[in-house]
Specification:
alpha+beta, 4 helices
């Protein structure tokens, strides 16, 4: 079975599971820096499945108003600012937003190559669930992740 077929089957299995927001950073003189909605996807581990594309995850945040808080670390202040950018861009308070994702070329994987965390290993589609992790068969990965998503 090809990666395309496996991912199509995953989409069908997830049809009644809610999706999460996809965002992109935008900046304008009038509206300032913000993260705007550009779509939605199922978050399946290191993959984001839209209706017609497969994306690799990157930054995940929740839209939120930072309020008035003291920060002990600059990184905490930056995360709060990013959450506020999503809120300013139209996401609702508490909504999960995926930013910085990249498109995976599934046709390349089906042809025996690799793209993002997906690769063809001995003609079998595999996924690398972390940058330093080993590859595991894509079908087993999808089954496990979908089962977990459906149980939540």
């Amino acid at each position: 079975m090809t990666a395309s077929e496996m991912l199509s089957g995953a989409r069908a299995a997830l049809a009644d599971v809610s999706k999460e927001g996809l965002g992109e950073e935008r900046s304008s003189r009038w509206r300032g820096d913000r993260i705007v909605r550009v779509g939605e996807a199922w978050h399946v581990g290191v993959l984001l499945l839209t209706d017609d594309r497969v994306l690799a995850t990157a930054e995940i945040l929740r839209a939120a108003d930072p309020g008035r808080r003291g920060y002990t670390a600059e990184s905490a202040r930056e995360r709060a600012a990013r959450r506020q950018m999503a809120l300013r861009g139209g996401f609702t308070e508490g909504e999960v937003v995926h930013v910085g994702w990249s498109v995976i070329d599934v046709d390349v994987v089906d042809a025996g190559g690799s793209s993002g965390p997906l690769a063809s290993v001995d003609a079998i589609p595999h996924v690398r669930w972390s940058p330093t992790g080993a590859y595991m068969p894509l079908d087993a990965y999808l089954r496990e992740r979908i089962e977990l998503m459906r149980s939540l």
